[in-house]
Design goal:
By secondary structure, this protein is mainly alpha-helical. 62% of the residues lie in helices and 9% in strands. The radius of gyration is 12 Å and the shape is globular.
């Protein structure tokens, strides 16, 4: 399933600004539609669930970014 920025933000009870920030710092993967608008798929949902969980545990954005980068490296190597 594909989600717009607004739909995605509503799913996670956060703001569109926050989602844009996460994609801008390469914390959250997204794709772009023909109008260059961010769109999100199930992979994005999975990443955001992890981000939300880590935030809920008190992790900083920098810690989350470092953790996600290490996971992304492992995923790419397999």
């Amino acid at each position: 399933m594909i989600y717009t920025l607004k739909q995605f933000a509503e799913m996670f009870n956060t703001t569109e600004h926050t989602i844009r920030y996460y994609t801008d710092i390469n914390l959250l993967p997204c794709q772009r539609d023909k109008g260059n608008r961010r769109i999100f798929n199930e992979e994005s949902v999975n990443w955001m669930q992890g981000i939300a969980c880590l935030k809920g545990c008190g992790a900083s954005i920098e810690d989350i970014k470092e953790y996600c980068a290490s996971l992304w490296t492992k995923v790419k190597s397999h």
